[in-house]
Structure formats: structure tokens, C-alpha cells
Please model this.
Amino acid sequence: MDFENPDRMYLLFDALLNTRLGSMILPIYRNYIRNLDLAGDERVLELGSGSGIATRHLAGVLRKRGGRVLCLDPSKTMTDMARKRMRKHSNVEIRTGDIRTLDIEDGAYDAAFVHFTLHDIDEEIRLETVMALCRKIKPGGKMFLREPTVKFGAMPVEAMRDILTRGGFIEESHRLISAPLLGPMYEAVYLKSPG
Ligand SMILES: C[S@@+](CC[C@H](N)C(=O)[O-])C[C@H]1O[C@@H](n2cnc3c(N)ncnc32)[C@H](O)[C@@H]1O
Model:
């Protein structure tokens, strides 16, 4: 999908999340993010933050103890939407660009958050992007990943494991679940490999 010019269905779904019906969908995001192993004081790097649907909940969890989120997305359309949505959240920074080339400190982030993004990264640059993400995380840092396994151009779970392992991560835990609208998903926690 072209996230610089998202189709009407995508924009409709995004707009829906700001309505009363949306508040029925949002717990799928909120409950997942509230239950992540985050103390609230971390620096988190969100890769592929899109319009900031998940970021809003992440920022809430981190606000309690001074944590911060750096959102990255190559799409200007998406980051403009996220800036609008997140304008009242002082612990969020949003940058437009590619993690492989943006000037971002290595080894500075306690955790990474990747939500419905890995499958949308062009295959030719996926491994390099995962490697760049891994470099930004502190030794022992975690990556929280949730990806579709059937809908939305999903990747097979084994292909995700393979690229993340080659990119410098080790799977710590995972579960396969399903949620209304989003469908079947792979939720996993990865650790930055010490080697
Ligand atoms: C399906 S959206 C998910 C957005 C958000 N994470 C969410 O869950 O609502 C996928 C996002 O991945 C982004 N993306 C595509 N290629 C990327 C890349 N190379 N690096 C980071 N993000 C990328 C797209 O621009 C888009 O915003």
C-alpha cells in the first residue's frame, strides 16, 4: 500500500477510530499496550508509527514516569496525521524519514515498538531496516512486535522470525491471537541479541 497516498478505506478506518464506534475498537490497541512490560520511564522508538493510533496509548503508559516515544515513519502524509493526533502529548516526538539514514543515536533506546509495520516495509530494505532498528536499542533492550498473520498482506510467522533473527534479535516470547477487525495476529517480544 502507498502510505503517501493512502486509499479511502484506510482513511475511513483511521477516521472511524475517532468516533464512538472507534472507541469499541481501540481497546484492542489499548489493552495490548497497557500490558506490555514497560515501567513507564523508558525511551521507546516506534518504527512505522503511521497516523499515531497506537502511539496515543504508548504515550499514556510512558507519561506516568517520564518516559518518551520517538515515532518514525517515512510517509509525510502519515506523520502529518500523527502530529495532529498527538499534538497534546508532550512526551512524543515524530520524525519523517527512514531509520537507515535519519540521524538517530545508536544504543540509546530502552525498547522498540513495531505495530503492523514489518510486513509493510519494502522487502528489499526489510533486513537493513531491522538491523538499523536493532542498532538503536540498548544492549538487553526489547522489541515489542505485533503483526497480522492473515490479512493486510501479512508475512508468514517463520519469515518474520527469520528476518528478525538475522537482524539481531532473539524471540523471547510470543502468542498467536485473533481480534475483531484486525484478525489473526502474531504478538511477540524480542530481545536485542548480545552477540
Ligand atoms: C499499517 S501502517 C501501521 C501504522 C501504525 N503502526 C498502526 O498500527 O496504526 C504501516 C506503516 O508502516 C510504515 N512504513 C512503511 N515502510 C516503512 C519503513 N521502511 N520504515 C518504517 N515504517 C515504514 C508506513 O508508512 C505505515 O505508516
